[in-house]
Design a protein that fits this description.
InterPro entries: NADHpl_OxRdtase_5_subgr, ND/Mrp_TM, NU5C-like. The protein is mostly helical and 447 residues long. It is built from 21 helices and no strands.
């Protein structure tokens, strides 16, 4: 059965990879950013794209029976987190940076699920919904002020002109970068902790953890590159010098989401509980464990018992591992932030990524995966045609054939139900005569 659990789990994972924009089925998400910004804030930050991650979390009891499937999930998640983050470094349009950031953050959630930390994944899903919706709506506010220009190199100096947008956007950026004490710090730290303590002896999981860790400074770098280019320095266009005013129907939601980006981490402060021994502050764990009437079938203790991993602490036991892991993660995030400040937090920044030469072209063109997919589509056209014939002729043919036989038989039998009483009486008489004849022959009545 273990083999079948793995096969089924990986087949379901194929749908999850497409739905939650994981490598290699992630290329649709940046193109979807052409839609209105409020739609991006709702659909891409919190609902539709999250459905794949949520499905694996709901099915974690099933996936826990297949260590191989979990390891693959963790590796794909860690790789996607780093892979998408590298592309965000060179993007010039505001919403494009956020698009690749979204792909990367869903990669972190997949890493958590593969590492056995499904509560950590749900936690990051929750915090991400708030701070990413905030960033999308903040980007929309900037785009309105810039007369729908999304190019960050035409911005600059908007901090003083859009103060509400700036400070709320800054809160979302700090949460995205995983800076203490913003919400993203707590959820991302728990993901990396789960991957760290379960990684020893699991090569794919360990690889996923390392890639997730490397994505931390890259995330902080592209996030604050975006902040500095948009809001700091000197205005680099006439529109930036005299932006359009933004009304309170735009700024109001930013204020609410900005507050949530700061405080949402308190719903699951597991590191504080482990270090200080304060009970009752792991609210999300308790809720998912049904202690407060939670969701049926999503019990953290039960699922934790099913998980294939054992925890191995690297230094100083559980508390030491928590502190070291958090310190490393925070240090890497601050390093990325500091590098972004050093390069782009100046009055007149220059495009330093141009110094990467051909590497920038590869990153800017998304590793040419769009072109690769188009090439593969043309090269596999004959195979796709044969598969279509098989699907319509065999698969659909069997299904449609069964339904056609049922309809044909039903139509023939329906003719017997004419509604004419005399016909019913005749049929009853014929049936009775036939029954008497059968009984007479088999019973020897006529001998």
């Amino acid at each position: 059965l273990d083999t079948w659990f793995t096969i089924v789990g990986l087949l379901v994972l194929g749908g999850v990879v497409g739905k939650s924009a994981q490598f290699p089925l992630h290329t649709w998400l940046p193109d979807a950013m052409e839609g209105p910004t409020p739609v991006s804030a709702l659909i891409h930050a919190a609902t539709m794209v999250a459905a794949g991650v949520y499905l694996v979390a709901r099915m974690y009891g099933f996936y826990a029976l297949s260590p191989t499937a979990l390891a693959v999930i963790a590796f794909i998640g860690g790789f996607t987190a780093l892979f998408a983050a590298t592309m965000g470094v060179v993007k010039d349009e505001l919403k494009q940076v956020l698009a690749y950031s979204t792909i990367s953050q869903y990669g972190y959630m997949m890493l958590a699920l593969g590492a056995g930390g499904y509560v950590a994944a749900v936690f990051h899903l929750t915090t991400h919904a708030f701070f990413k919706a905030l960033l999308f709506l903040g980007a929309g506010s900037v785009i309105i002020a810039m007369h729908h220009n999304e190019d960050m190199w035409d911005m600059g100096g908007l901090k003083s002109k859009l103060p509400v947008t700036y400070y709320t956007f800054l809160a979302g950026s700090l949460a995205l970068a995983g800076i203490f004490p913003f919400a993203g710090f707590w959820s991302k730290d728990e993901i990396l902790y789960e991957a760290l303590v379960h990684a020893p002896g699991e090569p794919l999981l360990f690889g996923g953890y390392l890639m997730g860790l490397l994505a931390v400074p890259v995330t902080a770098f592209y996030t604050f590159r975006m902040v500095f280019l948009t809001f700091h320095g000197e205005p680099r266009s006439d529109t930036a010098r005299d932006p359009e005013s933004v009304r309170w129907n735009v700024k109001g939601p930013l204020t609410v989401l900005g507050s949530l980006a700061v405080v949402t981490g308190v719903i699951n402060m597991v590191p504080v509980q482990k270090v200080l021994g304060i009970e009752g502050i792991d609210v999300l764990h308790r809720w998912l464990d049904n202690e407060w009437g939670g969701i049926e079938g999503l019990s953290s203790h039960h699922y934790a018992d099913l998980g294939p991993y054992s925890s191995q602490y690297i230094v100083g036991g559980e508390v030491g591992t928590v502190l070291v892991g958090a310190a490393v993660s925070l240090g890497l995030a601050l390093t990325g932030l500091g590098l972004a400040w050093r390069l782009y937090g100046v009055p007149s920044p220059t495009e330093h990524t141009a110094k990467l030469g051909g590497i920038k072209d590869v990153l800017y063109n998304n590793y040419y995966l769009d072109e690769l997919q188009v090439w593969l589509a043309y090269r596999t056209e004959d195979v796709a045609g044969a598969a279509n014939v098989f699907d319509q002729g065999i698969v659909d043919g069997v299904v449609n054939g069964v339904s056609s036989v049922s309809l044909f038989g039903g139509n023939r039998i329906r003719r017997l139900q004419s509604g004419v009483v005399s016909q019913y009486a005749a049929l009853l008489t014929l049936g009775l005569v036939a029954l008497v004849l059968v009984l007479g022959v088999t019973g020897g009545w006529f001998l």
